[in-house]
Amino acid sequence: MNQIFNIHGGIHPPERKELSNPGRVIDATTPSKLVLPITQHIGAPARPIVEVGDAVLGGQMIAEAQGPVSVPVHAPSSGTVTAIEARAVPHASGLTDTCIEITLDGLDQSIAYEGVEDWRAQSKTLLLERIRLSGVTGLGGAGFPTAIKLASDRDKGIHTLIINGTECEPYITADDTVMQCFAQQIVEGSEILAHIVGAQTVLFAIEDNKPEATDAMRQAAAALDMAEVVTFPTKYPSGGEKQLIEILLNTQVPSGGIPADLGVLCQNPSTAIAVRDAIIDGRPLTHRITTVTGMSLNEPGNRRVMLGTPIGELLAHAGFHAEQADRVLHGGPMMGFAVTDLAMPVVKITNCILAPTRSEIPPPQAQQPCIRCGMCAEACPASLLPQQLYWYARAKDQEQLERHNLMDCIECGACAYVCPSHIPLVQYYRSAKGALREAVKEQVRSDNSRGRFEARQTRLEQEAAAREAKRAARKAAAEARAQAGDDPVQAAIERAKAKKAQQEESS
Amino acid sequence: MLDVIASNPILLALAALVGMAILFGALLGYAAVRFEVEGNPLSDQINAILPQTQCGQCGYPGCRPYAEAIAEGDAINKCPPGGEDTIQSLANLLDVEPEPLNAEHGIEAEPTVAYIREAECIGCTKCIQACPVDAILGAAKLMHTVIADECTGCDLCVEPCPVDCIDMLPRKSGIQHWYWPLPDGASRDHLIATDRDAEQVAA
Fold first, then answer.
1. Chain A contacts of B88, Cβ < 8 Å?
2. How many CB atoms lie within 10 A of CB B68?
3. Which chain A residues have a beta carbon less than 8 Å from that of B54?
């Protein structure tokens, strides 16, 4: 058994996980229409390859990856494309983005899936291409294209694969349920992942508040020699990959680095299943397990949902009392964001839809001045100085923010949770991080513009100099001729005279 | 001579000081020639802060001339595309008080990008000549187009266009460019709870 270690800070918010009854998967209703955003991942948007009026089958690719960091989108079920237009998408901004709407025919026909036979014998490039074409992204929340992560990490040399079943955020039990119900598939998927990146060890990391999942994973993992199930005490945010690595391996991912720098790869259990489905069954990512929970629902639980299902329909299926709910959250209570439009669809990163009552999660209280108590610094799992960052974020002092390692903030919200002045600290950091990223982009842009401007100036100067040189040369030549006495006009007159004289002579 | 100096401490001190002055003067003079920096390093640093739109709204033909003017002591608040952030950075660099943007030169606006309505373009090449960063592609009597990624949004191409077919569109829009705004809670940041309540009642 591996020794486990502790991380700095962390909090213990009420878990409320039993509400969604982990361990049981409910099939969600089939909606009449699906809305599939072309951007459900980090990276370039996919490009639609169907047109309005096209008939599509389940599993058919409807938008292809555009550029290296991008993943395709597939139709979850059969029907007709009825719109390709801007719709509300699950995003903190509440903005719209291009979506493909499919009106389902209810037949649920699909294309013939063809898995890879004997994947151990296939080249890793082929397996990666399969994963990419199946639209697999990280299903834990960030949505980074899995094939890219695997390909770039493989080059760095991975020795340990961690399947991150921590699921430390309150309310959410999707990973817990997946581990209880599909342990075998997770192990198969992990084997494929380990094979691709060349890992020698697979660790299934689970918090000790999920004993059923731990048992199920232990049984399934017994067949795999290099696998081990590790449990550790429940604490938020142990599930952050950098935090988890510290808990399991007692090493810290360097500032600005990624786990692959230490030879570690983290994947979510659902992602492992998606990889398994893509390789063994040849099935693209079209469904996911989502926790639908909150006290305003009659029947909270984990549902197997078609991607593109409107959140409103999913809630209705769970017996939603809109009058009790203050707001609906996409994601958990710590890191989620408010759903502004119930027509927003479930996407690849939707691990939870939370519809709490007003008393369950009260609205945020008015912000009061910072009293410099330092509780935020004690809670910060990244060992940052939240208080200093707060002042700098308010002052928009990007130099100091960078110097205080703002970019290492994992936006877990532990600081805001413990703040006795109810300062929404994490909001300041999110904003400041966005501004910092934007500033870096602008700097690149302006450096580029400066180069182009200077190149143009040089070109104009060269052209002017060339013109000037030409004129000077012409002028010099004319002067030289004049000095030598061969005036072209005089010469022509003399030629004419000579010719005339010749004619007179001959006549 | 030496005896006179040695016996007179004031003269000794004087001689020592004059000797040191000559020595260090020579040293500094040599260093100034030997390690001379070409150009003005300060104007380079200023130029790095300016947004490089090359729009000329400051009254100078481009960002570098303005950077040189600032290094010579011109006001730092003449750059509308850079806005408050640029003024703040310049104030930090030059250790002067930041001033609000001088409205004579324009107001801070969202960054834009030029867009040519291509059906209307007659191919006169006037905008190509006006573009300070060579971001417009085209040839005489052929349609022109803007390379959006290279366009600085300076709008110098709009004026020369004889058929008015160039629009300035906002550059940043959509979900890819969005990031969280700062919480507005800062404005309600009052110490006395009763004040806050009164404000909430009024609101």
1. 396
2. 18
3. 449, 453
| Chain A residue nearest residue B193, CA to CA | A368
B72-91 residues touching A, CB cutoff 8 A: 85, 88
Which residues on chain B are in Cβ contact (under 8 Å) with A413?
A: none
Q: Read out DSSP for A46-108?
A: PEE---TT-EE-BT-EEEE--SSS---EE-SS-EEEEEEEEEE-SSTT--EEEEEEEEE-SS-
Q: Which CATH class is domain B110-170?
A: alpha beta
Within an 8 Å CB–CB cutoff, is residue B170 touching chain A? no
- The reply to whether A403 touches chain B by the CB within 8 Å rule is no
Distances in whole angstroms, Cα of residue A381 to Cα of each of A195, A208, A241: 32, 19, 11
- Please judge whether B182 and A393 are an interchain contact, meaning their C-beta atoms are less than 8 angstroms apart: yes
Domain spans in chain A, listed from the N-terminal domain onward: 119-282, 364-478
Fold of A119-282: Rossmann fold (3.40.50)
* Contacts B50 to A, Cβ<8 Å: 446
Q: What's the CATH code, domain B41-105?
A: 1.10.15.40
Q: Give A97's contacts in chain B (Cβ within 8 Å).
A: 174-175
Quote the distance between the C-alpha of residue A393 and its chain's center. Answer: 24
Can you name the CATH fold of A364-478?
Fumarate Reductase Iron-sulfur Protein; Chain B, domain 2 (1.10.1060)
Tens digit of each residue's pLDDT (9 = 90 or more) over A384-426: 999 999 999 998 888 899 999 999 999 999 999 999 999 999 9
DSSP string, A251-296: -PPPTT--GGGGTEEEE-HHHHHHHHIIIII---S-EEEEEEE-TT
**Tens-place pLDDT, residues A310-358:** 999 999 999 999 888 888 999 999 999 999 899 999 999 999 999 999 8
Domain boundaries, chain B: 2-28, 41-105, 110-170
In order of A395, A421, A448, B88, B99, the CA distances from B85 in angstroms are 11, 29, 19, 5, 11
pLDDT in tens, B22-41: 999 999 999 988 888 777 78
Q: Do A367 and B183 touch (CB under 8 A)?
A: yes
Query: A14-60, pLDDT tens digit by residue?
Result: 999 999 888 889 988 889 999 999 988 888 899 999 999 999 999 99
Residues near A333 by beta carbon (within 8 Å), at least 6 away in sequence: A13, A169, A170, A171, A354, A356, A361
Cα(A271)–Cα(A193) distance, integer angstroms:
10
- Is A423 at the interface with chain B, CB within 8 A? yes
> What ipTM score was computed for the predicted complex, to two decimals?
0.77
